[in-house]
Structures are given as C-alpha cells and as structure tokens.
Amino acid sequence: MTAPEPHSLQAKAALFDLDGTLVATEHRSRAAWTRLFTTHGLPVDDALLATFVGRRGQEALADHVDRFGGPTVDELFEEACGYLMGPDSPPPYAVPGAADLLADLRGRGVPLAVVTSGLRAHATELLEHVGGAGLFQVIVTAEDVQAGKPDPQGYLAACRALGVHPADGIAFEDAPAGVSAAAAAGLRCVALTTTHPAADLAHADVVVPDLTTLRWARDAEDR
C-alpha cells in the first residue's frame, strides 16, 4: 500500500479541537450518551449520537431534554459525566501523529491553543495523552464561552488571546460543527476523518485521516 502524501502547512498559530482531533474519545462519549438514553428507557441510534459530536454537551442535550420527562439539562449532563468518568468507561488514547505534531510545533515556537466543547478538567486530563496542557498558551473550554460550536466564539477568543488574526491561523477539527466554527471565525481548517466521513467535512480546506501526514513548512517556499 502506498503511503499517504504529506501535507505541508504554514501559519502563525495552530488551534486544535481536542476530542477526536488530538485524543480519541468518541468511543467513550458514545458509550456514555448511549447509557444515558437507555437508562431512561429512550431509544438511541447512530444518527442521534452524531448530533452530540463536536458540540457542548448541554447544548446537544437541550435538543432532546423534553423526551426525558422531568430531569433538567444540567441534571442529565451530570449523570452522563458520571458514566463518562466511571471505571468501566473505555479509555481514551492519542490520535496518531498528535503528540509528534505538537512537539514539533512547540519546538518551532508556533503559538498553540486548544478550543474544546468539553469542560476544563476534562481537557486537562485528556491533554496528558499528547504531552500535557503546558504545551498550549491558550485553552478555551465550554466554561469560557456563551455559545459553543458551530458558533465561532471559542476560536475568536483563542485568536485574541494568542494575538493572532484568524486569517493567519489554522484550526484542526474532526466534526462538522467544529469545521463550521473555524470557517465562521475566518480560520483555515484541517479536518480529520477520525469521527466523521470525509463527505461530512467537505467544507474544510484539507481533509486527512489523522495527523501523521502533516508537516509544518519552514517558510512560504516550503509550502
């Protein structure tokens, strides 16, 4: 089998989604959401679970809360988090190429940010799989924004904190909501097919299977 062609990138800053982009977590998130719905006697399928990917959990739950017949969004979210963090939850793992790419970018002095729909404690724990939260100058989580992806608020906040114009940055995403958020913020976007097929990510500038084929150009002539 022929190895995939490398993709050469260059920007003044790199902004990463977390779940599914740097760390593979969809398998455990799907297990938690599935358990939440089935515990309450509600049917759940792939189409429903796809509506949660890349979004803040509370906002995704708000679309379905009326079906639960009583519990609030916050109560349901807390219950789902309990399943997510339980001892029988399947473990997360680094997306192929993530740790190497981050180490390379950090070594080059490229400003780095995480923009995640998850909570800060969740993000801090997951980032240990790819080198630790200390690699990033900025971490924007669900607690830091009024509206989650596909709203661009998180990416715009990260660009401001990094002191970089969105047109000079690249976002890395794995879900349609994240690709839309990056585009709305004015960022170029690399999408990974770790959680969605390429057809669902067609609005990204580059679509790749994971982070192993990406390299950072030294200057414009290397691109």
From TrEMBL:
The lineage of its organism: Bacteria, Bacillati, Actinomycetota, Actinomycetes, Kitasatosporales. PANTHER family: FRUCTOSE-1-PHOSPHATE PHOSPHATASE, GLYCEROL-1-PHOSPHATE PHOSPHOHYDROLASE 1-RELATED. Pfam families: Hydrolase. This is HAD family phosphatase.
